[in-house]
Specification:
With 387 residues, this protein is α/β, with parallel strands linked by helices. 33% of the residues lie in helices and 24% in strands. It has one domain: FAD/NAD(P)-binding domain (3-Layer(bba) Sandwich), CATH 3.50.50.60. The N and C termini lie far apart (49 Å). Strand 10 and strand 11 form a beta hairpin. InterPro entries: FAD-bd (IPR002938), FAD/NAD-bd_sf (IPR036188). This is FAD-dependent oxidoreductase.
């Protein structure tokens, strides 16, 4: 039985969802500590530009202090204009692709994460790789880290991504589900020539057996300059605006098992395509070309205790229009609201976490399905026919 009250919340993982939760809890007057496995010396490769629509933007507005929220807004980019579809020679096939709502904004994932780290100070500890946890008889939960240290709180939240250690301990029977999709991505500094490829919210290029997705990340204001004015002391490197590109291939394509250099792989796959497309890939920032296998996973319920999940740890989704990030941010706001109710004595902590879990699974598994449907629309089979 979980007794009433919240006390300290331990958040495992300093990604977008975990940091949004931390800010929301601070605003609600709830003690929070965030533990991140990375040592904090660099940036994680988790993609580049994401689009956030109304629900994701509302979650940031509800969670962040005003100066950081203003920084998010001023550095974000437009997602207006037509969604185009070309063939590999840039012949227009459609000017009316589905896209985000009018109020959606483009954001750089790494810039957004740096903003979310702002104002949290020593509430965030880096180099803390979780080994396990245990709920204690005294009404607390203790996290154990690989460096031999421990942390104790009243609630532990696994916000540690698709390979979540918390999930593996909490729901060990659930594994990743291969989404039958492979992708390579990169970012290329913006030029007038490359901007013509993405005049609106996004561009899809349909080639034989592969799909190239393009999206522009034009900062409303260069992030380091904006941070110096609005949030002095926030660590924000200089950022150039860019075009983000993602090449998607189906599992039966020979390239799906290729382990070679990502840039050369993409150039091989688009051999004979329009020179503007090949030069876009050829001009990519070498530090920003990556390749990965893609997974998704729905989740069942688990026994309600003092440990819960958030974001990709609970509902790993295929990348589609900021779907995963926005869902994680909604998780954060809703979990904070339930914990605040328990903290005010309006309900028990057990009922708060149970209600949150029901809501989490309903929305999260729906988000997984949204990603699956997007895959069917965007990814051709090896014979070139869209599935």
């Amino acid at each position: 039985m979980i007794e009433q009250g919240v006390g300290r919340v331990l958040v495992i993982g300093a990604g977008l969802g975990g940091l949004t939760l931390a800010h929301a809890l601070v605003r609600a007057g709830i003690d929070v500590r965030v533990y991140e496995a990375d040592d904090g010396s660099g940036e994680r490769f988790q993609g580049y530009r994401i689009g956030l629509a109304q629900l994701g933007l509302a979650a940031l507005r509800a969670s962040l202090p005003p100066r950081l929220h203003e920084l998010v807004e001023i550095t974000s980019g437009s997602l207006t204009g037509p969604g185009l579809m070309f063939d590999e020679q840039l012949t227009v096939l459609s000017r009316d692709l589905d896209g985000p709502a009018a109020e959606a904004r483009a954001m750089d994932r790494q810039v957004l994460r740096r903003i979310l780290l702002g104002d949290l100070g020593d509430r965030v500890a880096h180099g803390k790789r979780l080994k396990g946890f245990a709920e204690d008889a005294g009404g607390t939960v203790t996290a154990r880290f690989s460096d031999g240290t421990e942390a104790t709180g009243e609630v532990l939240v696994g916000a540690d991504g698709g390979n979540s250690v918390v999930r593996r301990h909490l729901v060990p029977e659930v594994g990743l589900v291969d989404a039958d999709l492979c992708g390579a991505m990169g970012r290329t500094p913006i030029t007038d020539r490359f901007l013509e490829l993405v005049p609106g919210r996004g561009t899809m290029v349909k080639g034989p057996g592969v799909t190239l997705m393009l999206g522009r990340m034009q900062f409303g204001r260069e992030p380091s300059a904006a941070a110096a004015e609005l949030a002095p002391g926030l660590d924000m490197p200089y950022r150039d605006s860019y075009v983000r590109w993602v090449l998607l291939v189906p599992p039966d394509h020979p390239a799906a098992t290729d382990t070679g250099d990502a840039r050369e792989l993409v150039l091989d796959l688009i051999d004979g395509w329009h020179p503007d497309l090949r030069d876009l890939v050829r001009s990519a920032d070498m530090s920003a070309v990556g390749r990965s296998k893609v997974y998704d996973r729905p989740m069942p319920s688990w026994p309600v205790g003092r440990v819960t999940l958030l974001g990709d740890a609970a509902h790993l989704t295929l990348a589609s229009g900021g779907n995963g990030a926005a869902t994680a941010m909604q998780d954060a706001v809703r979990l904070c609201a339930r914990l605040a109710e328990a903290g005010r004595g309006e309900r028990s902590l057990a009922s708060a976490l149970a209600e949150y879990q029901d809501d989490l699974l309903e929305r999260g598994n729906a988000a997984v399905e949204v990603g699956k449907q997007a895959q069917k629309r965007f990814v051709p089979a090896a014979d070139g026919v869209t599935r």
